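Ticket closed. Logging final result for AAA family ATPase.
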Amino acid sequence: MLQGRAEEVRAVEALLAEARSGAGGVLVIRGEPGMGKSALLDHAARAAAGAGVLRGAGVETEVELPFAALHLLLRPALDRLDALPAPQAAALRGVFGLAPVAGTDRFLVGLAALTLLSELAEERPLLVLVDDAQWLDRASAEALAFASRRLRSEGVTLLIAARDDRDAFPATGLPELRLGGLPRDDAERLLSDGLPAHLREQVLKEADGNPLALIELSRAACEGEWELGGTLPLTHRLQEAFTGQIHRLPEPARRLLAVAAAEDTGALGTVLAAAGALGIPADALEPAERAGLVTVTGGVVRFRHPLLRSAAYQGALSSQRRAIHRALAGSVSADRRAWHLALAATGPDEHIAGALERSAEQAGARLGYAAMATAYERAAYLSTDQGRMARRLAAAAGAAGEAGQSGRAADLSERAAQLTGDPVTLARLAEITSTAELDQGSPRRAASVLIDGAAPIAGTDPRSAARMLAAASRNAWVGGDTALIAEASRLLDRLGLPPEDGLAALTRGLAHIHGGDLESGYPLLDGFLRHASPADVEGQLTLTHPVFVAGRLDLARDLSTSLAARCRAEGRIRLLPFVLDQLAYSRLMTGRHRDARDSAAEALQIALDTGQAHPTTGLRGMLAWLAAVEGDEERCRAMAEEGVRFALARGSWPVDLLATWALAMLDLTQGRDQAALDRLQMRPRGSSHFSLRVVVDEVEAAVRLGTPERVLEPLALFRRWAELSGEAWAGALVARCHGLIHDSEEHFTRALDLHRLAEQPYEQARTHLAYGEWLRRRRRKAEARPHLRHARESFERLDARPWADRAAAELRAAGEAPPTRRRADRGAALTAQELQVVRLAATGATNRDIAAHLLLSPRTVGQHLYKAFPKLGVVSRTELARLELDRL
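Final structure:
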C-alpha cells in the first residue's frame, strides 16, 4: 500500500474492477511534482492482475514532435492495425510515419486509437498508463483526450498522470483525482532515519506533505547540502536537491548527464555518439548509474525523476548546452537535427531556418499542426530578412489555426502583418485572423478583418476578394451589424464581377437579404441555388448558409444529411459539429424532433471533445428549444442561459436569438404570454428565415394577450419573405398567423392546405390546434374534435407534452374525453445513441461499421445493442429490420 494514499488507491482499483467487468473508464491524476503520481501508476500496474498493460509518457524535449508520445504508447499494438477500419488504420500509419498521410482529419487519429485499444481489450482487460502528460506533444494529447471521452464499454482503464499546471494535459469533462500533501503521520514515516531532530520540523514544513520532497530534502539535509529558511518554491527546492546530487559526480559524468538530458529519445547510441564528439568518455555514465540517478535498460538512458533530468540540463552552462545540441545534431535524423541546430543557434541563420521550415512541413504532413506552427515560428525568428520572417510567421499562423489554437493564430497573424505590405499575404492573414476571431466568438471583428483584407486585392484577385466579402457578410449578419453588411456589399459592387458569376450572385444576394432588401436579394439567391451543384465537401459547405437563408428546409436537410455521411466516411471529424448542427436544425424545422435532439446532442459532444467552443452555444440553444417544447423547464433554462451569456459577451445575436426563442417558447407553453412576447420583441430584427421564423410564436403570444397590433410590422416582413421564397411551409405559417390575427377561418383552411404540401408535423399540429380552438369557441364542437384529436396525437408522438396537454384540455371542452394513458412507444425507452445504433444495425451494418460511423468503439456498439434489444422486444438484427425505426 502506498504511504498515505489509501483513498487514491481505492479509486484506481475500482476502475480496474470495472474494466474486468467489461466497462471502460478514465482518470486524470493531477498533482505537483513529487506528489506520487508515478507511484500510483506503478501500483495500478501491479494491481492489474491478468490485464494487458500499455505504458507511455510525455518527454519534455519531444513536445514538438507530433504523435511521438502516442506512437510510443501504441507501438506494442501496431501489429493489430489491420483489424481497424481502413480509414482509421491509414490515419495511424500516416501519423506514425509508416505510410503517407492522405487528407486525414487529426481527430480521426483519436478515434483510431480508441478502436485499437478496444481491439486489444477483446481478449483481456487493458490498463493504459500515461505519465508526465504535461509533456505530451499536442497531437498525442488531443488524440488521447478524444479517445478517453469515448471509453464506455471497452474493458479499458486509462490512467493519465499530469502536473497540476493550468496548461497541462487538457482534461475538460474527464474525471480527475488531485493528489494533495500527505498527513503529518504519513509524512514523518518518509523522513530519513538519520535526519537530526532539529531538522525534522524544517523538512516537514518545507516539504508540505510532498512525498518526493520529504525523501530528497531529508537526504540533502542529512548530507549537509540544504540551507534552512529558504524561500524558493518547492519545485525549485527539489531541483536544487537533485543538483546537489549531480554536483557530487565527477565532471565527465555531469557533462554526460547533460547530453542525456538534452537527447529527447534517451537512445544510448545517440547519447554516446554526441558525447564522443565532445570528448567525453563512454564510461563517464557509470558514476551516475551507481548513484541511482539514471538507469540504462534496453539501450535507453532513463532519469530517476523528470526534475533530475531538468537539473542535469539546467546545471550546464549555456555555452555547454549549445555545444551539446550541435553534437547531437550530428547524431540524429534530419527532422530532429533541425531542432538541435535551432537550440544551438545564437542569431539569425538561414540554413537552420530552412531546415526548420522543412521540419514544419513534415509535421504538417503528419497532422502535427501545433508542432508545425512552432517550427515555422522558430524558423521565422532565425530568418535573415524581414520578408522571409513575415512569410514564415504567416505559415505559423495558418498552422496554429488548423491546430485549433485560435488565440495563437491571431497573435502570429498580427505579428506577420506588421512585417509585410504584400496585399496577397495580408489577405491570407486576414482570413486566418477572421477564423480565429469567429472561433473565439467575435463575428463582428471577424467581418471587419475580412473586409479590410479584401480591399487591397479587389483589383488583382476579385474572386478571392468576393469570397472574403461573402464570408464577411455572413459574419456581420451573425454579429447583427448591418453597417458592416452594407460596407461588404458596396465593396463587392466595385469588384466588377459579371452578373452571371455564381459567387458574385451569392454574395450580392446574401448582402441584400441581410441588409433588408428582400426583393433584390432573393432572385439572386434563388438563381445561385438553382444552378449550384458542387460535388466536393468544401463546395457543399458553402451552400449550407444560403439554403437556410432561403428557407429551403428539404434541401437543407438533404444537403446536411449527405454532408454528415461524407464527413463520417472520410473521417472529417472536425467538421461534424457544424454539419450536424445544420442537420439538427433542418430536422427541428421539419418536425423530426427526436432526430434533431439526437443530432444536436452528438454535435455538442463532438464539439466539446474537439475543443470547438463556438458551435456549442448554438447547439445548447437548440436543445433548450426542444426541452421547452417537451415541457422540461429545468433543462431548457440550463441550456439556454449559457447561450445568452455567450451572446452578450461576444455580440453573436443569432445564438442569442435561438436561446431567447427557447426561453420564450418555455413561457408560451407555460401560459406566460406576456413574458414570451416581451422576450421575443426585445430581439434584434432580421430578414432571413432564422429571425423571421420566430414571428409565428410572437404572433400567438400577442393574440392571446389581445394586442395583435404589436406584431403587424414583423408579420408583414415575414409575409414578404414567404412570398419571395415560395416555400409552402412558410406560406402555411403566415396563413395561420393571419387566421389568429383576423379571426379568419379562410386563413386556417388555407394553412392546412399548404401544410399538406410540406411535411412539418409539429407546425401542422399547432395549426390544427389553433383551428380546433377557433371552431370550439364558436360552438362548432363536432367540427373541432377531429382537428384537436389530430393535434393531440401528433404532439404526443413528438413528446411535446405541454402542447399535448393543451390539445387534450380543448378536446375535453369540445365534448370528447381523450384516452387517459398515452400509447406506449417501444422506442421511447431508447437513449439517443441506442436509437442511432439500432437504426444502423437494421441496415445490415456490422458493429465495426457502426462504430466508425458514430465515432465509438465496436464494443460500445455491442453494449448499446445488448441494452436496446429487450427495450424493443427483439432478439436479433433480422427482427430489427422489420421494425419501422424511422418512426421511433
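The longest strand covers residues 156-163. No further action required.
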